[in-house]
Design a protein that fits this description.
By secondary structure, the protein is α+β, with helices and mostly antiparallel strands. Helices cover 28% and strands 25% of the residues. The chain has a domain at 30-177: Beta-Lactamase. The chain has helices at residues 13-39, 48-60, 76-79, 126-134, 176-188, and strands at 69-74, 85-90, 106-107, 138-145, 151-162, 165-175, 194-197, 203-206, 224-225, 232-235. The strands form two sheets. The protein has a six-stranded antiparallel beta sheet, with helices on both faces. Strands 8-7-10-9 form a four-stranded antiparallel beta sheet. The radius of gyration is 18 Å and the shape is globular.
Length: 238
């Protein structure tokens, strides 16, 4: 992605509040799922798919769902093996190049995807390794998800831990285009073009046509923080 130059101070505290509120809802959802999974530990993993499905399917099957994917990725320490255990469901998809168009949630089937071999070392991937090392919820992205959504997404994952053991992560995927629907009204209310950037300065949502999603921009100390997230709002177009 091309670099872009920015300067100035964000003048949209309302937009920052909107970002914080949206991700707070996601964090609360993950917290509830995490507690529900832990409530059944250490009973084993025999009914893990059923337990996770009961948690995530209502959110994915809702009218106009916020989430495009959700589930639990189990650590080998929980399953007692070395294989990847993805208890993961996808929401209804619009003409996806891998799955086609779907009208209902569907379970991710890794066995049917030869290009998923990289997931056998999933513990090195950011969405797993950061929650494991920090013991905190983490936002990964934006990035292009070639495994499921085949689109630009953000992934939010939270560690599930029991008695000092890492059992896995519970998480959700959200389309960037859905984040735009949620966040652009508040961002457009600013008197300056704004870009929502992650901790690496990569743009997630932007009101500046010259700074599209995926662009990496410098972020000064006057960028506005979005409480409870690693996102910041940067004024562009200076």
């Amino acid at each position: 992605m091309a670099e872009a130059t920015t300067a100035g101070v964000s003048t949209a505290p309302t937009a920052a509040v909107r970002v914080s509120e949206l991700f707070s809802r996601i964090h609360d959802t993950l917290g509830g799922w995490r507690e529900a999974i832990l409530a059944d530990e250490p009973a084993g993993a025999t009914s893990l798919d059923d337990r996770v499905a009961a948690l995530v399917l209502p959110a994915l099957a809702a009218d106009d769902p916020l989430l495009i994917g959700a589930g639990f990725v189990a650590a080998p320490e929980l399953t007692g093996g070395t294989d990847v255990r993805f208890c993961w469901w996808l929401g209804p998809l619009d003409d996806n190049p891998v799955f086609g168009a779907t009208r209902a949630p569907s379970k991710l089937d890794l066995a049917a995807r030869s290009y998923s071999d990289y997931l056998r070392d999933f513990r090195s991937l950011e969405w797993y390794s950061v929650p494991q090392s920090t013991h905190r919820t983490h936002i990964t992205g934006p990035y292009v998800d070639h495994l499921c959504a085949c689109d630009y997404i953000v992934t939010v994952t939270s560690p599930v831990e029991y008695d000092g053991r890492m059992l896995g992560v519970v998480g959700v995927d959200v389309y960037v285009k859905r984040l735009e629907r949620e966040l652009l009204p508040a961002m457009l209310a600013s008197d300056r073009p704004l870009a929502l950037v992650n901790e690496h300065g990569r743009v997630t949502v932007s009101t500046d046509p010259a700074v599209p999603a995926g662009t990496v921009i410098p972020v000064g100390p006057d960028a506005e923080e979005c409480a409870g997230t690693t996102f910041r709002l940067v004024a562009t177009g200076v």
